[in-house]
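User: For my dataset I need records formatted as: sequence, then structure tokens, nothing else. Please produce one.
Assistant:
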Amino acid sequence: MKNEERKPAVRRTLLFLCTGNSCRSQMAEAFARRRFPDADVFSAGIEAHGLNPRMLAVMRERGFSMDGHRSKTLAELPARTRWDLLVTVCGNAEKSCPTLPAERRAHAPFDDPPALAKTLPPGADALAVYRRVRDEIEAFVERLEP
């Protein structure tokens, strides 16, 4: 019997898009990289706002150092002819998202932790908001099929 050449597996590509790529899309990228180690996973924002320190703190609680993560725009991502999955994680990104070629699209409108934290009364635990959204994003990513 003749040995057939094996074609290398094509890596799936996932993109999480948010307004500033500082919080929700960063968390989604981290959870997706852990869940899908054989995929190319990215996050970006319509703008780049820098990494949110509270997001970094709640991700460290879950064992993510976030080393190598940085806030970036779509223009800073590697050129792609198409994404296998594009997920917008906020309403602004869904409305403002440029037309990107994607095999599948999903919209998961998670609450904005920085905006919610600003509305908390003095002395309230702002990290609790970040933890709740972090856990919701993790549960969403666990249900994803790339």
